[in-house]
Amino acid sequence: MKIRFLVSIVVAVVAVFVLCAGGLGGLLGGGTAAGACLPAYVLSAAPTAASSPRMPGVWPAVGQWDGEQVANAAAIVTTGAQLGVPARGWVIAVATAMQESTLRNLPGGDRDSVGLFQQRPSQGWGTPAQLQDSVYAAGKFYVKLLTISGWQTMPLTEAAQAVQISAYPDAYAKWEGPATDLVTAIAEAAGLPTGGLAGCGAVGPWTQPVLAPVGSGFRSSDRPGHDGVDFSSPRGTIIRAASAGIVRTVRCNAVHSSTGLPWGCDRDGDPVRTRGCGWYVDIDHTGGLMTRYCHMDQPPMVTVGQQVAVGQPIGVVGSTGRSSGPHLHFEVHVPGDASEAGAIDPVPFMAAQGAPLG
Questions:
Q1: All domains of the chain, ordered by start, with CATH?
Q2: Fewer Cβ within 10 Å of end Cβ, the chain: N or C?
């Protein structure tokens, strides 16, 4: 039964690519960079070695997720792999299920909602019995996701919302970090490629740390000491390494403005009462350049001395340190100077690298 279902979903997936403005360019919004993010097997109707997972008999607990939850997430991931959906789609699907059901295959929910994604039979997702089949439910999610133009370059919460049409459209953002971690663990155990987790911007030596508008600019007249730019991103949005390099600093830097005593990074900061970058990461790049990423919501995903790839997740957006709300503060420093004297405007620099901000 599940094999027949997967075959029918693969046909639907291929049909989606054909119907969306004539191919990949139409489906993804027409950008060369976006198209370059897709693995070669996306359009293949026949499973390939890359999409044939090794399935453990029993899934162990991973972090906060018990074996049942991990098994449900694994069903979502492996279904995506067998359908040729890029790894970014697996993260979006797992994050959605984390929000909708905490990765439990629920028999019911709000109104007539059912299953991992709390899909509703009354809205045409399938019968209650079908929606409690994790493979079926995941397949339906992916088919809808692939109809969303530009889904790979959207913030996760926007892509998930475009599929789910939830009453709480921003709720998915906080699960991007946990979903990325869990998908990575499952993919490694199942022998699946995870290159797509780096995101669509990472097709050259430099990429945007987040895909979001630039708010406060570099050393403006009202903020002459602002040594970077701020991105307006929801809490929990994944922050990515702007280029390959080695992690120099992972630190909590948040103190009381009045006393200099520790404020801590286990809570949000304040624009007046707090000083410092909060949870932040510095990365050294070739040519002596350095990038800095401030105000992360929780301890970063990387450690000092770690080699990171361009586009690799390094943390999530938050509001720790001197901050008035969730955002990413991003700095670029010239070779050999990590101080404020070495900071340069990231906007023209990143534009010159072929990764314009905002």
A1: 2-197 (no CATH), 229-352 (2.70.70.10)
A2: N
Q: How far from 345 is each of 5, 156, 207, 211, CA to CA, in Å?
A: 52, 27, 16, 18
On the question of pLDDT at 17 being above 90, the answer is no
pLDDT value for 33: 30
**CA gap 196, 311 in Å, rounded:** 10
Query: What b/e sequence results for 208-240 when a residue is b if at least 16 CB atoms lie within 10 Å of its CB, and e otherwise?
Result: bbbbbebebebbeeeeeebbbbbbbbbbbbbbb
More confident residue, 26 or 95: 95
Q: Are residues 216 and 296 in contact, defined by beta-carbon separation less than 8 angstroms?
A: no
Q: Kindly tell me if the per-residue pLDDT of 348 is higher than 70.
A: yes
Rounded mean pLDDT of 159-169?
84
What is the predicted pLDDT for the residue at 6? 55
Residue 241: closest CA among 281, 214, 272: 281
Output the pLDDT for position 53. 62
Nearest Cα to Cα of residue 173 among 117, 235, 98, 97: 235
Helix%, strand%, coil% for the chain, nearest 5: 35, 20, 45
| Residues, the chain | 358
